[in-house]
Design brief:
mainly alpha; 0% strand; UCP035865; DUF2336; DUF2336 domain-containing protein
């Protein structure tokens, strides 16, 4: 197999040998193609053009196996193999650099799901080819694409994947396992998944639609608050939530009750349309009038004022202790102070749980400002 092509090989090929012999010679010629002289290479390529029409799949399969990573194979030969049956075409589709984006897009749009998966697994997938794969409707191909770190998938492309395949467990798993996932895409994926779960929960006879919706809001908001690791992440996340209408009073109160003051500051600055630095000055104004003015400018429900004011005050006195369940202890103390604040205003709650508190916020009189 390591001997160069010779006249005897050509004679064996032309004398109508068996399929085994043709496959052996195809393998031999293709494996040596790059090392041949110009004259030998031209002869080899003429033989390739005969072999791509060979009736025996194993002959064409041997050819594809040896030519899949050959950058000098003629384009017409590469395309013939790429359009062949799966046993022949898949290696070419996944590895051949001779195939252009235009070639691959045409194949993705016109040929089998197995071929789409092979294309999605290429070492580099351009943005235009990725778009064609997303449009294919093939979940397995899209899951392969999303898990491929060599695919050119920008934020807009990933959002398209979420829109079309967000409820697919296969695609969703590939999305969350990506090394880098834009924070806005992660939030949209969570929303898509939680909506799907909400529909299942609402079908349960032991849960009211209201209870199911409340459970999903709780889970989504908790998950969203865990997405950001830096202030730049927070700003991007808050901007996204604002644009899609999910920057709610409840997630803002939840953030400060969990000790995430950065999220709270950036969120209220966004609603008030002022710089975060100026927002921080008003929030932490010793006279407390600054926060009241900021709260009104942000257009937040008045029933939330006392809770947010109490949470800010408590945040000055508390910090995580680093021990087990420190976030839970922080949140518990925060809620105790908020309940005390409302008690001073003559409002009694039946429960000291954060979810209960949040569910009751919107039911309080709109006139309650906690002067």
């Amino acid at each position: 197999m390591d001997q160069k092509l010779n006249e005897e090989d050509v004679k064996r090929l032309l004398s109508n040998p068996t399929g085994d012999v043709r496959a052996e010679i195809a393998d031999k010629i293709a494996s040596q193609h790059q090392g041949l002289s110009d004259g030998e290479r031209k002869l080899a390529e003429d033989i390739f053009r005969l072999m791509v029409r060979d009736a025996e799949v194993r002959v064409r399969e041997a050819l594809a196996r040896q030519l899949k990573e050959n950058p000098t194979v003629p384009h017409d030969v590469a395309m013939s193999l790429a359009r062949d049956v799966e046993d022949v075409s898949l290696p070419m589709l996944q590895f051949s650099e001779v195939l252009t984006d235009e070639d691959l897009i045409e194949i993705v749009r016109s040929q089998s799901p197995e071929k789409q998966v092979a294309v999605a697994g290429r070492s580099h997938v351009s943005a235009s080819l990725a778009d064609a794969l997303v449009d294919s409707g093939n979940e397995t191909a899209v899951a392969t694409l999303v898990s491929n770190e060599g695919a050119d998938l920008n934020e807009a492309a990933l959002n398209r994947v979420v829109d079309r395949y967000g409820e697919s467990e296969q695609v969703g798993k590939s999305m969350v396992e990506r090394k880098v996932l834009p924070i806005t895409v992660a939030e949209r994926l969570m929303t898509k998944v939680s909506e799907n779960l909400r529909q299942h929960l609402m079908a349960r006879p032991d849960l009211t639609p209201e209870a199911a919706a409340a459970m999903m809001i709780q889970a989504r908001e908790l998950a969203v608050l865990g997405l950001s690791n830096s202030e730049s992440d927070v700003a991007q996340l808050v901007g996204h939530l604002y644009n899609v209408g999910r920057l709610t009073p409840s997630i803002m109160l939840r953030s400060v009750c969990m000790g995430d003051m950065t999220f709270f500051e950036v969120a209220i600055a966004k609603l008030a349309k002022i710089k975060v630095e100026n927002c921080r000055t008003l929030i932490h104004d010793a006279g407390k009038r600054g926060f009241e003015a900021l709260f009104e400018k942000a257009g937040l429900p008045k029933a939330f004022y006392a809770a947010m004011r109490a949470a800010i005050d408590v945040s000055y006195e508390m910090e995580y202790d680093g021990g087990p369940n420190d976030r839970e202890r922080f949140s518990r103390r925060m809620i105790e102070r908020i309940l005390t604040q409302y008690g001073d205003l003559g409002v009694d709650f039946e429960n000291d749980d954060l979810e209960y508190l949040l569910s009751k916020m919107n039911q309080l009189p709109a006139t309650m400002l906690g002067e």
